[in-house]
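Still learning. Any example?
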Amino acid sequence: MDTYSTHMDTPTTPPNSPDVEIGQRVQEALIVKRVTVKALAETLDMSYSTIRRTLEGERSFTISQLSHIADRLNIQPSSLLPDTMAAREAA
């Protein structure tokens, strides 16, 4: 069953979706590495508003984007994935 917002019946992302968790992990990594959302948007050649929506889980990062983010932040790409996805990657 889809959850819908009252604004134009646009589907909303469930709070426990992988996209939301990935967005949260990216945001946490940005804080730790002291990189701004604006700088990340420039790295990915995305608009600021698009990167914000993606960080909030309204859109999905591509594998390529996650790889670029990990490279930019000098971290392992798997650290940006939910634990259930990272465990499958390691197997």
